[in-house]
Design goal:
By secondary structure, the chain is an alpha/beta fold. It contains 8 helices and 9 strands. The strands form 2 sheets. It has a 5-stranded mixed β-sheet with strand order 3-4-5-7-6.
């Protein structure tokens, strides 16, 4: 059996990242992969980057990593209302001002996607979708659209994040797995999330979502004490957010 730990959407939440990495270590997977968005929204982007770098974890570039790493004026987020857009834009600018030059260079060097083959099973790992790093693949998306993505994915298992809402099911013979979020869950459960993937010798694939408690109060306080970040981001941590991004 081969095992793979997958974490995604850390978003400057160093306490959640530390807790998840400790939980992953306790399960001793064969490999750990991060699906990106190390920064944005949270008050500890440099510390979060350092945690991933210190363990040499292969990491995919998320849209927020791209926005901060390249000092862009837009993070590629699909905000649903003007208030969200305003808060998100302020978050991008604040994070750009805080992340170190070395940290930005690291973000610019992240992989666009990763592929693995475990016991003959082809895995494709992306941030948003195989088509765009900022495309949202929600479980209730038009089935025909998901089917088209499955048929062109060129893999047996498609693993992604970006929506911060975990889900898994088979579509057109492809196993879709959304790993949820470490640092900013939006499914109503405030605990940090990560996924353990198992591929048996006969090619059978299972995935298990793990939820990990961490010091939410400390991270919420850090956000409230950061002049460039909205208090709404702290509330999102405390409540487990919502489907909006």
């Amino acid at each position: 059996m081969s095992t793979l730990a997958i974490l995604a959407d850390l978003h400057g939440n160093s306490a959640a990242t530390e807790a998840v990495l400790a939980d992953i270590s306790a399960h001793a997977p064969d490999e750990v992969i991060c699906l990106g968005d190390l920064v944005g929204y949270g008050a500890r982007p440099n510390e979060t980057i350092d945690l991933i770098r210190a363990q040499g974890i292969p990491t995919i570039m998320g849209n927020y990593d791209d926005g901060v790493g390249f000092d862009r004026d837009d993070c590629g987020c699909a905000y649903r209302d003007p208030g969200e857009r305003e808060r998100g834009q302020a978050s991008l600018m604040w994070t750009r001002s805080i992340v170190t030059t070395d940290g930005k260079a690291y973000l610019r060097g992240l992989a666009p996607e990763l592929r693995r083959t475990l016991n003959g099973v082809r895995l494709r790992l992306v941030h948003g979708s195989p088509r765009r790093m900022n495309e949202y693949l929600f479980a209730d998306r038009d089935p025909n659209s998901l089917a088209r993505i499955a048929r062109s994915a060129a893999c047996d298992v498609l693993i992604f994040g970006h929506t911060h809402v975990p889900w898994a099911r088979e579509i057109e013979g492809v196993r879709f797995i959304n790993a949820g979020s470490v640092g900013k869950p939006k499914d109503g459960n405030p605990r940090a999330g990560w996924v353990l993937l198992r591929v048996l010798a006969d090619g059978t694939v299972t995935s298990e979502l793990h939820r990990v408690p961490y010091d939410i109060a400390a991270m919420a306080t850090a956000i409230r004490e950061s002049a460039g970040l909205s208090d709404q981001f702290a509330i999102d941590l405390e409540t487990g957010g919502s489907r909006s991004t």
